[in-house]
Amino acid sequence: VYRAADGWCAIAAPTQHLWEQLCTAIGRRDLGADPALADNAGRVAQRARVETALRGWVADRRVADVVAVLGGTVPVGPVQNAPEWRTDPHFAARRMLVEVTHPHHRPTVQLGCPIKLTATPSSVHLRPPRLDEHGDELRAELETRRGEG
Q1: pLDDT tens digit string along 101-138?
Q2: Domain count, the chain
Q3: Angle at 59 between CA 39 and CA 46, to 5 degrees
Q4: Does residue 90 form part of some domain?
């Protein structure tokens, strides 16, 4: 996740092909051709170098510009806060906005499951828990696990 001039965006390039596409898009073919960065393990080992290059490229651009340059080539998207995703037409079209009820609060909208399967559609089965609603069970389980190991 990288800070842009007007917000944040997420960029992913876990494969060599996507890494090379990303490097080309940001004008850093040298990184894409570097044998030390030829696989994910190499990029993780040199994370500081990779992060510096990406942060530098993203920093002066608007999120929409980063998405426009990388979108369709490299997985990228804006990081949205609740007011943004609640009004995003894409979230509505993908049925990502789910209203849930709670016995002690007004109904609220939360994000649904991003995985959409035709034969087995997802749904929200439980309401959000009340503060410490499952605390006793969780503490008991933690205590049991402490005794085991």
Answers
A1: 877 888 888 888 888 899 988 888 777 788 899 999 99
A2: 2
A3: 25
A4: no
Contact predicate 79/1, CB 8 Å: yes
What are the distances in angstroms from CA 148 to CA 25, 42, 127, 144? 51, 38, 32, 6
What angle do the packed helices 63-70 and 16-25 form, to 10 degrees? Answer: 120
CA–CA separation, 139 vs 144, rounded Å? 9
CATH of the domain at 15: 3.30.1540.10
**Structure tokens belonging to residue 9:** 């965006």
Sheet holding 76-78, edge to edge: 2-4, 7-11, 76-78
Q: What is the pTM of this model?
A: 0.72
- Residue 85 is assigned to a structural domain of this protein: no
Q: Specify if 84 maps to a domain.
A: no
